[in-house]
Request: fold
Amino acid sequence: MTGFDQADLFENDPDALDLDDDRLREECGVFGIFKHDDAAAMTTLGLHALQHRGQEAAGIVTFDGSGFYSERRMGLVGENFDKRSVIERLKGDSAIGHVRYSTTGETALRNVQPLFADLDTGGFAVAHNGNLTNALNVRDEIIKSGAICQSTSDTEVILHLVAMSKRPSTVDRFIEALYRIEGAYALVCLTNDMLIGARDPIGIRPLVLGRRDDAYVLASETCALDIVGAEFVREVENGEVVVITDNGVQSHHPFPKRPARPCIFEYIYFARPDSYMEGQCVYEVRKRMGDQLAAESPVDADVVIPIPDSGVPAAIGFAQAAGIAFELGIIRNHYVGRTFIEPEQRIRQLGVKLKHSANVSAIRGKRVVLVDDSVVRGTTSLKLVKMMYDAGASEVHMRISSPPITHPDFYGIDTPNQKKLLAANYDLEGMRKHMGCDTLAFLSVEGVYKAMGRGERNKNEPQYTDHCFTGDYPTRLTDREGAPEPRQLSLLAEAG
Reply:
């Protein structure tokens, strides 16, 4: 143990006893479609498919050839865009949309995307998945130059940079703006006559190109293409800008070519299991992670139980590889909202049972292997291990299908600061004692790469963005350099 105060996990953290709060926060999801008669309805469907990437807010901007229309709402897509009247107000045959993920920071409608502004070249709307690591510095510069910022979103920085550019064309202005920003981004933008998509130079955040009939589609994941009946064309390459107009798709590569380093957590946790990335089915990758985990850390047990829902594919892979029965030993109630749980501490503790219940018949008298995809603060694991013993388990063994998370993220994943990351403050035995399980094991970094079909991790040029495990950040963290306190302008949280 390295000075880690357990009180930091519980007494000083009002959310720590809510299992859903001991998760990596989802990023965001983006969707765009160009020249389709039902653009708003298609975008609504696409955002439904991407809802797992953000449940806090959603927005859609459309263009009908003469004007832009915007609807931005707090809450789920289905709560706000299921009414025909809303979709009918979103006129036009081109649209972009955004879902935003939950955060512990203050929520404000002014930060809900897509963001829109009238520029001298016409209307410009932008939606962003990711996080810029120099947004505060750039924001300070543009405010000093006379810009007036209406939100605390790093996405607005992009909007201002495009507006301030003196380049002759919208595409050139957009590319010039990209030269000024650092970090992770997948962007979709809508103008009077084009749909634009872009990925950061190493492709940390995902973006795919699809087509339905004559309409082109951009989306964070292939599952959003599937729901609107669009065929997958290809992934937008790292560092690529795609421009979709009436003349088709044009590709620009404004940055020097670099090897791609997509975020490894897309495969471990964020992406929907039925999505494809780099030609691989995410579900199958997660099963292979479970298979590799069983090979690295076998255990003599009677039953493998996943921690729902994200631990299911890895648990299946573990059970199949180990020859151990797979059972749904934890039943999750999907219909209990966050607002139901009262803030008072004792009621919060009761809230765990409102969301997760033990399937006693699958547990009593059994040696149980609990499989999860990751451990953040350890509060979920602690509570569920106790739940297994309370249900009559004779032994409880924790197996995690990713390496220990020792470093925070600054690219769009809302991780706690380092002092609240369990693995940054305990060694393996300390974590095991904290959770109260009989044994504990994590998948190794090399095991993740094997499961990805990559062989060994290239230490000089890693194939994935894996800094949460290794501390190897792939870009500069400009907003944090030289700051007395960590500085980061998030696309989610209000600035202090």
Q: What stands out?
A: Residues 373 and 401 are 5 Å apart (CA to CA). Residues 1-19, 338-343, 484-496 have pLDDT under 50 and may be disordered. The first strand starts at residue 28 and ends at 34. The radius of gyration is 23 Å.
